[in-house]
Amino acid sequence: MRRDSIKKTGGRFAEIFSKYGIVIVLIGLVIVSGILSPSFLKLRNILNIFWQTSYVGIIAIGVTFVMIAGGIDLSVGSMVALLGAFAITTVNAVGDSYLGVFLAILATLGLSVGLGFATGVAITKGRIPAFVVTLGGMAIYRSLVLNFANGGVYMSNSMKYSSMGMSFVLGMPLPMLVFIGYALLAHIILNNTKFGRYIFAVGANETASFYSAINVDWVRTWTYVISGISVAISGILLSSMMGSVSSSSTGNGFELDAIAAAVIGGTSLSGGKGSIFGTFFGALILGVINNMLVMLNVAVYLQGMVKGLIIIGAVLLQNLSKE
Amino acid sequence: MNEEVILETRGVSMEFSGVRVLHSVDVKFTRGKIYGIVGENGAGKSTLMKIVSGFLQPVEGEIFVYGKKTTLNPLKAKELGIILIPQELNLVDTLRVYENIFLGNEMKSRFLFLDKKKMIEESKRLVKRFGLNISPLQFVYRLSPAQKQLIEIVKAVSKSARLLIMDEPTSALSEREVKNLFNLIRRMKEEGITVIFISHRLKEVKEIADEIIVLRDGRKVYEGRASGLTEKEIAQLMIGRHLSEMYPEKSIPKGEIVLKVENFFSADGSVKNVSFDLRKGEILGFYGLVGSGRTELMETLVGIRRKSAGRVTLHGAEVNITSPDEAKKLGIVYLPEDRKTAGIVPILEVYKNITLMNLEKYSRFLLKKDLEIEAFRRYKEKFSIVSRGPYQLVKTLSGGNQQKVVISKLVDTGARIFIFDEPTRGVDVNAKHQIYHIIRNLIDEFDATFIVVSSELPEIIGISNRVVVMRNGEVAGIVEGEGLNEKNLIYLATGVSEEG
Description:
The structure holds two protein chains of two kinds. Chain A is built from 13 helices and four strands. In chain A, strand 2 and strand 3 (172-173) form a beta hairpin. Chain A has a single domain, classed as ABC transporter involved in vitamin B12 uptake, BtuC (Orthogonal Bundle), CATH 1.10.3470. In chain A, helix 3 crosses helix 10 (216-242), helix 6 crosses helix 10 (216-242) and helix 11 (254-264) packs across helix 12. The radius of gyration of chain A is 20 Å and the shape is globular. In chain A, the strands form two sheets. In chain A, strands 1-4 form a two-stranded antiparallel sheet. Chain A is mainly alpha-helical. By secondary structure, chain B is of the alpha/beta class. Chain B has two domains: 5-239, P-loop containing nucleotide triphosphate hydrolases (Rossmann fold, 3-Layer(aba) Sandwich); 257-494, Rossmann fold (3-Layer(aba) Sandwich). In chain B, the strands form five sheets. Chain B has a six-stranded mixed beta sheet with strand order 6-7-8-3-9-10, sandwiched between helices. Chain B has a six-stranded mixed beta sheet with strand order 16-19-20-13-21-22, sandwiched between helices. In chain B, strand 9 (211-216) and strand 10 form a beta hairpin. The A-B interface holds A 3-4, 7, 188, 192-194, 197-198, 200-201, 204-205, 207-215, 272-273 and B 17-18, 304, 323-325, 327-328, 334, 336, 341-348, 352, 356-357, 359-360, 363, 365-367, 369, 409, 413.
């Protein structure tokens, strides 16, 4: 009897930890950071971390959809530069007006849907592995961005566009609010709609989903469209905040960060498992670690190594917890 | 007679997370005998076999090999000649036959190079010894499931097996191939190899085994000569209560034709010129050997595979079905042959599996989870699904209960024509019995009509009103009434009579 009840509470604990463990890890990191560097806990710094995390965080949400459906998207880093550059070029062409900004945003979203759709069709109808298609996309988008700027920078001439990315609402940076709002919306789509259920089913067992009359190709294609839209939102916010896009460096390494955030948050690389909740906090954990590395004066060049180790460690933990 | 004991367990018990699955089991396996182990799913057969072959360590009890107390691990068991052939085959499809036979056991010449010539020679010898006609250079993916099963056995024997354990070796085999397998087992017996044979097919166990061991709820309830029991007695021992008639009374079909198939061809050539019709309220059986095109025909009918020619008429109107979704909308649903890969989504919860095919009903922009949970409770009661609750993952259910979940999913679509492909494969006697009654009750309740594909003769004869027999992708004949017997079915399926 006793042993049973102990086992039960043990099981309960494990369940709670597997669900909210990531929040506990984040709180632990924040406490450690606060002790190591008291200025870390200042509201200004916390908001800053949230702000900086938003760009990758929004992309990571899209990548989570792709990964749960059993795919992968490596093109997001180059795509954010391409879409950011496209938005700036469009605003510059249309002129510095609210209408111009609005049209540019609309056009950028439209382009992202097109690119995501094309990626999805190549993967599902062309039967090309997602890894190959999005690796190709990564090279293609970057090369296009570099080509049109001759390796230089896309500068925004529009004050209205540039001020958007720096604006605050209710004392909070706009990108942070968009990140939170987008995460909530994504959570609802993934957990409370038919489409979300299909994403899990397709990622967990594509054959059974097909036999269950689910349009598997359609579901998988749409996850790439969502990934594209996420990249567009991130690209617009990023390029308007910076007022420019660097054809060579904007978005570099975003694919690693986005996949890392999803994996840290418990999304499975083999599909069928994952949550927006996890990805949201996974992105914040990455943000806090980045901030800590800067505050502790760790060489910028070593930050990639730390991230690499974290992503490998996160998968190792997933494997261990399975046993 | 002095019988040499190969392996003996004394008081072996096993626990998984505090739940006892084996209770002090004593068994003894002697040289050159064939043992049949039977029991329902969850009776402890596989657990006991994993202990005997070193894959699991018992929590209590001892194991003696050749009279010596031994602690086994998989490697040691292999060295002692104890070989387990698991239910899921372990061949590498993209390698050749001989490479598979010697996988992990390769012969080497000097300088660490593989001695391919010698391995090919040896494979040829082994394959021939078992009377098989397979080239060692053939790629495994080109073999039929039955041939793969036989190669798996050749592989085991190549490792000088003394005790060979086969877990459900016949579940993918046709009657004919089972006969070949049995010949092989008997040959091994003559060579002094002890064989443990696990199967759900009691008839086969009775036919091949010298001794029968019956397990129930982790306890050994019977051990003795196979000839001492009838099939029915074995079944009763397995479920521990009187087994009322296995098959429900046959329905009386109404005359109306609901589905008519004429000159039907599949695009991949596996189905040729098939015609039949389906009468309302009947169970139309489909029998044939593995590879005879039964599954391919059904998959083409519901739009999983492409058809190239033919006419399908549903309730008098011609239809052209090109996807499972269209079939579903027309009220035709398919229960796939392979439950694990095509039936269930293992890592999703039970309730999500049940509502997967009919989510429209549970969604008004957002999903209505309370309705889904209600559906779970309804089907749990209707089909007596044994589950801890809606949130249990389907993969943790027993085979029979998984199948009931798949059936629930199909019934929930509101379909009236059901195509069940091997609905009782890998489920225990009790679940089989329940599935037959579920089929019968659906006919009574909804005026439903069934096509049932099966490789098991007693089953197909026991439940069908009529049986279509297929051979090489074509219809070899349709039998009913007096003609519906084993002899006719085997004759039509193979094209040769038993005497010839």
